[in-house]
Here is the input.
Amino acid sequence: MTEEKDEKGKFIVERKYVDDDRIIEPDKLEVGGIDISGRWGTLVLPRTIEEFDTSIYEKVLRLPRGKNIGKCWQCGNCTAVCPVAHAHPEFNPRYLIHIVKMGYRAEIDRLKEFVYLCSGCGLCSAACPKGVDPQGAMIAMSIAFKSKR
Amino acid sequence: MKNLNKESNDKVLVIGSGPAGLRAAMDLAELGIHVLLVEKRGELGGAPIRWKYHSLAPDFTPTEQVLGPMIEFCEKSDLIEVKRNSTVAECIGEAGNFTVTLNTPDGRERKNVAAIIVATGFEHFDARVDPRYSYGRAPNVIGINELEVMLSQGKVTGHDGKVPRRVAFIFCVGSRDRSTNPWCCTVCCGVSIKQAIELKQLLKDVQIYMIYMDIRTIGLWEKLYWDSMEKYNINYIRGRVGEVYYTGEKLLVKGEDTLVRGPFEVLFDMVVLAVGIEPGEGTRQISKVLGLNVNEYGFLAPKIPNVHFDSGKDGIYLAGTCVAPMSVEESIAEGSAAAMQAAKLMNRIKVRA
Amino acid sequence: MVYLFLSAFSVVDPYYVSFFFVLLAAVSLVMLYMRIKTWGVEFTPASLITSVASSELKGASFGKKVTLLASGSFRDIFLLRRAGRWCEEDIHTLGRGLLMWGFSLLVLFSIVDFLISFNSLLTYFLAGSKALMISGALILLLRRLLYRNRRISTDPHTWALQSLFLLIGLSGFIADMLCFGNDLLLFGIFYLLYLGLFAVFFLYYPFSELAFLVWKGSLLTQESLAEELRRIMTEKSESLAGKR
Here is the structure.
């Protein structure tokens, strides 16, 4: 009985709010004469968006197959048919397009390695109602994330 | 001089001169039937004229082009008697023979009419009721009705006269919410997107973010949604806003981006609230005077929800946004439908006489 | 024997043909380099080789690195690790796989053919690899042609590339079948067609999505090699620590 309870809801992909990358453990940390050495999570990032970061979005738009991502209305048809997404939930074409358009850098840094999982099957572009060509967007993003221009 | 047969029973009372009322009056007059058009405000035209709608969805038709001819016709027609700044205070009688008492600037007047068409329209939700958005407290938080006035004047600025660089449109303010109004206003999505496009055309460098729950651009209005994204670079954030806070310089909008499943906080120069359609004071008042049924939302309830003109009372017909939220084109159609019912009644009376 | 016949057609002297292919490959490599540079990224095929050759990637000797690279590439190309085996789009994977096998085997057998001086031992092997290419390209094309939504959403470059592979395979296969026959003219036509289409392919592919796939494949190979070496390093240091 307990086992059934443990398995329920496990298919939901939870987001971690504590990032392993942002845990620091300095040998000695002293503030105002008080020793506060130990393991600290540096969760504090500015919350307020003063300017949206459109640099990556513009990079993707410039690459030939990424020019249509402005049309994406986040319906999720692409992720729904994507065979890779069903095996690896972190590869989510809809979400990748969203974070690129919005310029959410923290999410882009977290997920950018997964964009290379795209198998190029093209089912997403076939399912897309708006002609966004997510297959092309994945290609453009794969290049843009490594591009220095 | 208008030739008005004051004592005739061959007259139809049209209450309200919005798109529905104007159309009803026009159709009846073109059929040769006398009309008494009663408007509680000082000018004809209803919401589009009161709020100076710049253009109408979906094709940006100038309001003037649609409302202008109707207003001109009603003002000039020999068969239509227009009573401005007037309301209906009492009504007794039955179909074919109603006696109504009007409150006019010249005092109370008693009229005999054969049929009544109710087209009392709507009011925009007063966003002060929902304190989340700081409407009425923070500067530069405006409603879509107020933005429409600015657009028709060709000048959109904040309270300090400065041109906004980043504007947020918040959808579903005073609608789809048990704590304010539980219904959907049907046209707000389309109208807000229309305004966003016009704003982008006016201020080329403005960044616009539409913060929405669902996008309900009805029927052929869908084109507005597609064009806003594909041609005008307007951004969409699916989510809800929890608070609009004035920092002293800008407006801090705090909400959740549903697609990221996380909070966002963005500084905007101006926030436009899509304040929805709700039944107005005029509708409430007329339902009491005429003894009409009102549904749980406060709109006039037809006998069957799918047949709007039938109020359930003989001789009284309903049309337009006093029955349910709808677009200008639908209101115009409903005005015609109600006029048709009134004309049929007039025919039956003439045959009997 | 076929090539002795062909020597009469001096234009298809097999050594000239080899030179022709090497030249095309070199030109297309230069074009590929220039195209990849316009994206603002590093030219990963080259950086892959240099990272194996240099001492930058620590953890193993040069020989070991080459072995790792070879076994990795074998898994990628012949066991279809790169073709998308990690998802369930089997038809797509199969089509790509057949194409990759066919093309790789074609290159491999052609090199061997050169080394054994074209004594036509390998004609059937060459024809076989072309048959694999044909079946792969056919699967990929039909997969897109037969479904309306896929058909209307496919990029023109994709049609061009897949059709080129199909036509190269077909013309080459037919030429191979005809080379033992009597009609030398017909053979000549198909063979020249084969060479011409291959030339088109080499000059075209840097501008197609194949350029991206080559770049991405090299990038991922480089990263998995680095990962593999890191793993070896950690194992080494852990076993050393354990021994103490």
In short: Chain A touches chain C at residues 63, 65, 82-84, 86-88, 116-117, 119-123, 125-128, 131, 133, 135-136, 139, 142-143, 146-149 (CB under 8 Å). Residues 9-14 of chain A have pLDDT under 50 and may be disordered.
